[in-house]
């Protein structure tokens, strides 16, 4: 049987196994020299080219027939747009006034709206500025950082003139918890549960945002027209992350031990001072006696 001969084109494509190493292999691909690409340089080049081709948006005046958008909101209120009705209360810082709006120049103006205006005397602030340079901004900065909550007396707007600083707050018109205790205490269990639950809701809201009131007492808890309570007067408030300025802050009768003794205190212990004060308020609603009178009696008994 004759040997089978393969076609010539089937053997031409094979590499010659005896080809010398110094001879060029036609089937071996050539290696090209690749350059490293610097992306930062290319980015700068593209940015320079792009910024040079930008055309200003308002390089020419708009057409006269173009209608510009209008702001539907009314302009901010001024002190001249408010009318003082009476004084609601006072203290060493100034007074709390009942004011109402009188402006009626904008479709969204509502004349006759009532607010509480807290005045801070600049003279008093400058006198104490050496010991507490940020005292004038504490209440404003704390309230503006908080969202609205029904159990916190929120801020609406701020003003100032040559004599005073003004904080316009939500009006909570039915007095303070102090007046309610004086008229109706000792309260029954249903009223105690309701009012103390209001205080707990307010303190829980402040704790979520890392704020300590540091002066919880019946005078700083307002009663709304619907009977719900609202925490007010954040002039002594602070953020729980602050490590200094916590000793002897607030009202003595409602101070927690952590505020009086500074040994071994930390951020975690500061969070409990408002709950201690709320417990003193609860005791006062139950007995119609201030908590400090009980502690003073126990102190005198121990000395005797």
Task: Write structural notes for this entry.
With 304 residues, the chain is α+β, with helices and mostly antiparallel strands. It has two domains: 79-169, Phosphorylase Kinase, domain 1, CATH 3.30.200.20; 177-298, Transferase(Phosphotransferase), domain 1 (Orthogonal Bundle). The chain is 33% helix and 15% strand. The protein is built from ten helices and nine strands. The protein has helices at 8-12, 39-52, 122-128, 135-145, 177-184, 189-208, 257-260, 267-270, 273-287, 291-303; strands at 82-90, 95-101, 114-121, 155-160, 164-169, 211-212, 221-223, 229-231, 238-239. The strands form three sheets. A five-stranded antiparallel sheet has the order 1-2-3-5-4. The chain has a two-stranded antiparallel sheet with strand order 6-9. A hairpin with a 4-residue loop joins strand 1 and strand 2. It is extended, with a radius of gyration of 37 Å. The model is unreliable at 293-304 (pLDDT under 50).
Short description:
By secondary structure, the protein is an alpha+beta fold.
Tally of DSSP helical segments: 10
Mean pLDDT: 79
Helix fraction, binned, reads 25-40%
H-E order: HHEEEHHEEHHEEEEHHHH
CATH fold-level name of the largest domain: Transferase(Phosphotransferase), domain 1
Question: Looking at this structure, what is the CATH superfamily of the largest domain?
Answer: Transferase(Phosphotransferase) domain 1
Question: Could you state the oligomeric state of the chains shown?
Answer: single chain
* Largest β sheet strand count, sense and barrel closure: 5 strands, antiparallel
Query: In total, how many domains does the architecture comprise?
Result: 2
Q: Would you count the extended β strands for me?
A: 9
Weakly predicted, low-confidence segments: 293-304
Biggest β-sheet: strands ordered side by side in the sheet: 1-2-3-5-4
Strand content: 15-25%
Which value, in Å, is the CA radius of gyration? 37 Å
- Intertermini distance: 136 Å
- Derived structural class: alpha+beta
**Overall outline:** extended
CATH class of the largest domain: Mainly Alpha
CATH architecture title of the largest domain: Orthogonal Bundle
């Amino acid at each position: 049987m004759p040997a089978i001969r393969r076609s010539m084109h089937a053997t031409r494509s094979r590499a010659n196994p005896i080809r010398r190493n110094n001879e060029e292999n036609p089937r071996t691909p050539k290696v090209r020299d690749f350059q490293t690409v610097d992306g930062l340089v290319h980015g700068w080049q593209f940015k320079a080219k792009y910024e040079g081709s930008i055309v200003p948006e308002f390089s020419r005046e708009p057409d006269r027939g173009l209608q510009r958008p209008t702001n539907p909101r009314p302009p901010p209120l001024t002190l001249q747009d408010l009318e003082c009705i009476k004084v609601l209360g006072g203290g060493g810082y100034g007074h709390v006034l009942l004011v109402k709006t009188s402006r009626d120049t904008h479709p969204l103006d509502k004349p006759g709206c009532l607010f509480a205006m807290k005045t801070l005397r600049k003279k008093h602030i400058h006198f104490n500025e050496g010991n507490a340079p940020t005292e004038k901004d504490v209440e404003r900065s704390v309230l503006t950082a908080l969202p609205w909550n029904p159990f916190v007396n929120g801020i609406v707007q701020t003003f100032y003139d040559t004599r005073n600083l003004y904080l316009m707050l939500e009006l909570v018109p039915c007095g303070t918890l102090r007046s309610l205790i004086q008229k109706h205490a000792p309260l029954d269990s249903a009223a105690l549960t309701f009012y103390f639950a209001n205080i707990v809701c307010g303190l829980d809201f402040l704790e979520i945002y890392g704020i300590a009131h540091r002066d919880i007492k019946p005078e700083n808890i307002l009663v709304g027209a619907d009977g719900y309570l609202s925490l007010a007067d954040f002039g002594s408030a602070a953020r729980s992350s602050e490590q200094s300025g916590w000793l002897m802050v607030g009202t003595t009768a409602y101070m927690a031990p952590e505020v009086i003794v500074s040994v071994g205190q930390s951020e975690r212990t500061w969070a409990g001072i408002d709950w201690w004060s709320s417990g003193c308020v609860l005791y006062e609603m139950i007995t119609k006696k201030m908590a400090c009178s009980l502690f003073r009696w126990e102190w005198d008994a121990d000395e005797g």
